[in-house]
Design goal:
By secondary structure, the chain is α+β, with helices and mostly antiparallel strands. It has one domain: YbaK protein (Alpha-Beta Complex), CATH 3.90.960.10. 18% of the residues lie in helices and 16% in strands.
């Protein structure tokens, strides 16, 4: 899949890949189980891939690499305040 999310879409001059330590320190969750809710710090911008709206049920990480919970695009968007965005083709 080609990623089409661009810096201009998120109003940032630079996009970088962060490491596992940054993710843990910022969200409070380890990679592999980063829940979309309950972060210890608030994000400046939260995106949700519009393609997830194609599914009746979305299985989201529940804060542990072996834990997930069922939700919907609408519920997840509302709970996170995420901006629907086309992330890939």
């Amino acid at each position: 899949m080609e990623h089409i999310l661009e810096k201009s879409a998120v109003k940032r001059s630079e996009l970088i890949r962060v490491d596992a330590n940054f993710v843990k320190d910022f969200s409070g969750f380890s990679i592999g189980g980063v829940s979309p809710i309950g972060w210890i710090n608030g994000a400046d911008i939260i995106l949700i891939d519009e393609a997830l709206n194609d599914y009746d049920v979305i299985w989201a990480a529940a804060g542990h690499p072996h834990g997930v919970f069922p939700t919907t695009f609408g519920e997840l968007s509302a709970a996170t305040g995420a901006q629907p965005t086309c992330v890939g083709e």
